[in-house]
Write a structure and sequence with these properties.
two-stranded antiparallel ribbon; single chain; 7 helices; alpha+beta; about 220 residues
Length: about 220
């Protein structure tokens, strides 16, 4: 197997699935970690690509616009706000969120210590004009997830959206998205799927969002 010999190495690759011309042609799993083709694997920041895909679908449905203004103060009034969905997607929001991975860091606090991932990111100060400075930012992605949630009338419809519009159409049934205590998808980090289904998700993007003749994600 491809991963044999990795057992005592520091990288600890858990799974490999290879698709060629739309077909699965090779796969290998870290059997010494009890990983199999049916093991759900944590996607960490690959989850950001899922969130971006969901936004693409929502844009195609007219549910959101890239020019929608983020309600920074969560007061129902965006007249005094100037961060847009486009800024958040591009990670050019200007917030003071710091993506480092020390023990007590913004990511650690947001993901493991706070009830609401979006509220933690929302509380960051604006230190740059939105659109002028890029900074890799998991907080921004969770604010994107919040804007998506706010476009629905209820949590149930929001929770069903990824499964009905993205995973089911491509036959990726193993996907599970994690939420915080408020019911918000933690769009920056917490998603699980088998290697085969992660490969399907990658293939979907290789095919410009089309699957079996259907445009799942608008171009």
């Amino acid at each position: 197997e491809i991963l044999i010999g990795q057992e005592r190495k520091a990288n600890h690759t858990r799974a490999l699935a290879m698709i060629h011309c739309g077909k699965l042609v090779a796969e290998s799993y870290a059997s010494w970690l009890n990983v199999t083709k049916d093991t759900p694997l944590l996607g960490w920041s690959m989850t950001k690509s899922i969130t971006s895909s969901l936004i693409g679908i929502a844009l195609g449905e007219g549910r959101l616009s890239l020019d929608d203004v983020f309600d920074k103060h969560n007061d129902g009034d965006t007249g005094n706000d100037d961060i847009t969905l486009r800024n958040l997607i591009h990670m050019e929001d200007g917030l003071s969120y710091d993506e480092n991975y020390a023990l007590v860091s913004h990511p650690a606090q947001m993901l493991f210590q706070k009830r609401s991932t979006a509220e933690f990111a929302r509380e960051m100060d604006v230190v740059h004009k939105p659109g002028e400075s890029w900074c890799y930012n998991s907080g921004a992605t969770n604010l994107v997830s919040w804007m998506l949630k706010e476009s629905f009338d209820n949590l149930e419809d929001y929770w069903e959206f990824p499964y009905n519009r993205l995973f089911e159409p491509i036959g990726a049934d193993s996907f599970t998205l994690g939420t915080d205590s408020t019911g918000l998808f933690i769009g920056s980090s917490f998603s699980f799927a088998t290697a085969r289904d992660w490969a399907k998700f990658g293939q979907l993007h290789l095919q410009h969002g089309k699957w079996n003749g259907k445009q799942v994600i608008p171009r």
